[in-house]
Design a protein that fits this description.
The chain has 740 residues and is an alpha/beta fold. Helix content is 51%, strand content 10%.
Length: 740
């Protein structure tokens, strides 16, 4: 058995399942040349005319554009731009009724032609010396999409990296009334072949198969003549059967290969392009002529001049119909596309786009309106006519029930919407319309699922980003903490100094507390000492009072004049000494008070200002010391002038370094001074009473006598005798000291 390629070379033609044979009705336009449509008053150019997304708008309202100037940019792979069909001014950019069964408005640019038809600068390419990327960029920039009805971007279909066995050029116009490709082949076969050459440069196929129906003999002959010089270019005439122009059906007819369910022709090594697409590629590469016009079949019994017309992209359907002599009926239907796969237009302002190949305006007799839909009788005629080998009856039920799972199970996606099932249905059920609605619902569900999946992905990405930022913050904080720790370790000396200062401060606080306690204890001890000294003084005073009054009776009974004179002089000297001591004491008290204040201030400035109790205690102690020292000096002076040695036992003198001893000494000195004064007074009184000899008449004697006169207060003779004896002893001692 010969190989598949040998069979193809031999001209073998295969068949596909199903199909129908509706009346062609192509004679009204296939025998007429292509007319050129004049410039309309307005051009409505939709920004998206293909499968994909619209490009970025490049112009604005009020701007003048040139013929062939791009109006949008190809900013991604699923975008092909649109171009200005002629020179003119952009009036507005607004939503307009779209050429789609849904008739939903799409963003449309309204262009007002200026009649000059002025071209932009063009740069043709030599495809023989151009690389693949240059050719693909030129195809995309020229806005070329599939012109057979699907509108898939051509640069994606021809820029594949997989090996291609067969390049199929679809020149089969299986649908009734349409003759646009037929006339294009008759008039531009050579240009079409040049476009095929460019496609072969991009795809490098083993063979090129050009399929044409057997009811187009002129077109087939023109194509064979144009391909006569090309090796492996095969023109094949296929039987006239609808829908032999379908992609999968034509592949099966020419190669006997079936495209698997859910797969693409490229997966079996086949790429198919429409004959109009090949013509547009040749114009784009060789002439830098973007896709701004196409041949449209305008036909129907309501037209006086049905024919094929070269119409600019954006031409309103109403202008096309008027150019061909449109005579509408009261209830007129206008269909874009053929009678099998076309759709009724809701508005005649809908423009011609890149995928528009036919405008049909039939009469009611020529194409009756659909009859009332009836129930399915399960005749299976739809299944027999389906070229995709589907079960239209089952798909109808699941479409009405909106059971998307069952629709997927029964391969609704493989339906090519050819309308063969609805054409043969005796119950007049518009099966294709149900399928289209079901497909739209499935697409919407898939779109929502995709949005949900994308939202989930964004949410997970956001959570991941937040977690990553959290970890980065933690790591950053850890690094900063480590750096601080290293810095602290590096500055250990500063830390040691701070610790030492803290210890010193703690010791100072503790010392202040201890000093406070010691001050309290010292004050308490001083109080106790003063109390003890007072008790001792009282005891000494009591012991002195209990001594016998007759210590020296002979001296008392036998006084002499010399002793009396000496006692008087001693008394005078004692009085003078006391006066001097008092005056010196006053001066010393003033000086000591000033010194004490200065010392207190100096000491207070050195102490902590925050401890007023310590300062007050220290000042009190200093004043007490100064006062004690002053009193001690005063008492010592009095003792030297008025006290006989050895009369009264005195405590040992206090040293300056012991304030308690100084206090005791001061107290004892005051007691001795007071006692000496009392003794001196008693001595004088005793002499006046007991003296038998008259005193010498001198002034001192007079003074002493006057001072020794008895008073009512001196009533104790024993004390007087003791005082007299003490005075005599002191006078005798003073006399002896003067002699010596």
């Amino acid at each position: 058995m010969p190989s598949l390629f040998k069979q193809i070379q031999a001209g073998a033609i295969w068949n596909f399942h199903g199909g129908i044979h509706p009346p062609s009705r192509k004679q009204n336009t296939s025998q007429k040349p292509v007319a050129v449509m004049p410039l309309p008053d307005r051009l409505y150019i939709p920004l998206r005319q293909h499968i994909g997304v619209a490009g970025q708008l490049l112009v604005k309202t009020g701007e003048r554009v040139l013929k062939g100037q791009p109006l949008t940019s190809a900013d991604n792979s699923m975008t092909v731009p649109v171009h200005a069909p002629t020179s003119g001014t952009v009036l507005q950019i607004t939503p307009h009724t779209s050429p789609h069964p849904s008739a939903l408005p799409e963003l449309t640019l309204v262009l007002e032609p200026d009649g000059l038809d002025e071209w932009r600068d063009r740069e043709p390419l030599n495809f023989a010396s151009s690389d693949k990327m240059q050719l693909l960029n030129r195809i995309q920039d020229s806005g070329i999409a599939g012109m057979g009805g699907a509108g898939f971007p051509t640069h994606l279909k021809t820029g594949v990296n997989q090996p291609v066995d067969y390049l199929i050029i679809n020149a089969v116009e299986c649908e009734p009334y349409i003759t646009a490709d037929d006339l294009l082949i008759q008039e531009a076969a050579t240009t079409i072949v040049k476009g095929i050459d460019i496609l072969c440069r991009l795809l490098n196929p083993k063979a090129v198969l050009i399929g044409i129906e057997d009811d187009k003999p002129i077109a087939a002959a023109a194509m064979m003549a144009a391909c006569s010089q090309r090796e492996h270019y095969y023109v094949r005439e296929v039987p006239t059967k609808y829908p032999s122009g379908g992609e999968k059906q034509l592949i099966q007819l020419l190669t006997n290969k079936e495209v698997p369910n859910g797969r693409r022709p490229l997966d079996i090594g086949i790429v198919m392009q429409n004959v109009g697409t090949a013509f547009a590629i040749a114009q784009a590469v060789l002439d830098d002529h973007p896709l701004i016009s196409r041949i449209v079949t305008v036909t129907g019994d309501t037209l006086s001049q049905p024919q094929n017309v070269i119409a600019l992209i954006g031409t309103p359907v109403s202008d096309l119909l008027q150019y061909c002599g449109f005579q509408p009926e009261p209830v007129q239907r206008v269909i874009m596309g053929g009678p099998m796969m076309g759709f009724t237009l809701p508005d005649l302002s809908v423009p011609v786009v890149k995928t528009t190949n036919c405008i049909l305006a039939p009469t009611a007799k020529e194409m009756p309106a659909p009859a009332q839909e009836m129930d399915c009788i399960r005749c299976s005629a739809c299944a027999d006519a389906c070229p995709a080998s589907l079960l239209p009856q089952q798909l109808l039920w699941y479409s009405k029930a909106k059971d998307t799972d069952k629709l997927k199970e029964y391969n609704l996606a493989d339906c090519i919407e050819c309308g063969a099932c609805a054409y043969v249905c005796p119950s007049e059920i518009p099966l294709v319309q149900y399928y289209r609605v079901a497909k739209a619902d499935i697409r919407e569900q898939q779109r929502e699922a995709l949005k949900a999946e994308q939202a989930k992905a964004r949410f997970e990405a956001r959570n991941a980003r937040l977690e990553r930022e959290k970890q980065e913050r933690l790591e950053r904080n850890q690094q900063l903490a480590a750096a601080r720790q290293q810095q602290q370790q590096a500055s250990g000396a500063n830390t040691a100094v701070a610790d030492a200062l803290a210890r010193i401060k703690a010791k100072q606080t503790q010392a202040a507390a201890s000093e406070d306690e010691r001050s309290k204890a010292q004050l308490q001890a001083e109080r106790e000492l003063k109390k003890q000294q007072a008790r001792e003084y009282q005891q000494q005073k009591a012991l002195a009072a209990q001594q016998p009054a007759d210590a020296e009776p002979s001296s008392v009974q036998q006084p002499s004049a010399t002793a009396a004179v000496s006692d008087k002089a001693s008394a005078v000297a004692a009085a003078v000494a006391r006066a001097k001591a008092k005056k010196a004491a006053q001066q010393s008290d003033t000086t000591e008070a000033a010194n004490t204040d200065n010392a207190v201030k100096a000491e207070g400035s050195e102490q902590n200002a925050a401890d007023p109790r310590k300062a007050a205690i220290a000042a009190a102690i200093a004043r007490a010391k100064a006062k004690q020292q002053t009193q001690q000096v005063q008492d010592a002076t009095a003792d030297n002038n008025a006290e006989p040695a050895g009369e009264v036992a005195s405590p040992p003198p206090a040293t300056e370094s012991d304030p308690r001893k100084a206090a005791v000494a001061a107290a004892l000195a005051r007691a001795k001074a007071k006692k000496a004064q009392d003794s001196a007074k008693g001595n004088e009184q005793t002499e006046q009473v007991t003296s038998a000899q008259p005193a010498e008449p001198d002034e001192a004697g007079k003074s002493i006598t006057a001072a020794s006169e008895p008073t009512d207060k001196d009533t104790d003779p024993r004390k007087a005798a003791i005082a007299a004896a003490i005075a005599r002893a002191k006078a005798r001692k003073q006399a002896d000291s003067e002699k010596s």
